[in-house]
């Protein structure tokens, strides 16, 4: 595991790099709005991905690196993410397909930046479809705007809503709530199986 800092227009970001023995792609994972890269689902997915032959970069946004708890505005999050993705793609993962992903807020960032960042696929852990109890504040457009293979792993009791599958979007429901802590094995299995299919598509 390697930790690096990446300068962005909004301050330094951090990336924790976990390398697979024979990396065939790289998965960039962002954290939730109020949490860090040590979230249980991110840890489980990192293990699953490296076992599947995919390098992983756990990306910490500049506001977290600076010690702030309140998330930055969406535009700043997206700009910092794209800066990190470009840096990692050039310095560490040259010529490898990049998969964007993250949990909750990080999943939203991954969706919004997938096209500009030339991602090959998107992994959404606990995508927050709407604020709890506010279905009229839907973020469905962010998911629908991704014209790539997408996997959404969602807790069956997630108060932030549940996504629906489409021709390019798979949705896997697992036990638990928005934290995805109740069944890490189920999260790992879903991601491992999906990554296997994505790697076959990319070969």
From TrEMBL:
<dbReference type="InterPro" id="IPR026555">
    <property type="entry name" value="NSL3/Tex30"/>
</dbReference>
<protein>
    <recommendedName>
        <fullName>KANL3/Tex30 alpha/beta hydrolase-like domain-containing protein</fullName>
    </recommendedName>
</protein>
<feature type="domain" description="KANL3/Tex30 alpha/beta hydrolase-like">
    <location>
        <begin position="24"/>
        <end position="182"/>
    </location>
</feature>
<dbReference type="Pfam" id="PF20408">
    <property type="entry name" value="Abhydrolase_11"/>
</dbReference>
<dbReference type="InterPro" id="IPR029058">
    <property type="entry name" value="AB_hydrolase_fold"/>
</dbReference>
<dbReference type="InterPro" id="IPR046879">
    <property type="entry name" value="KANL3/Tex30_Abhydrolase"/>
</dbReference>
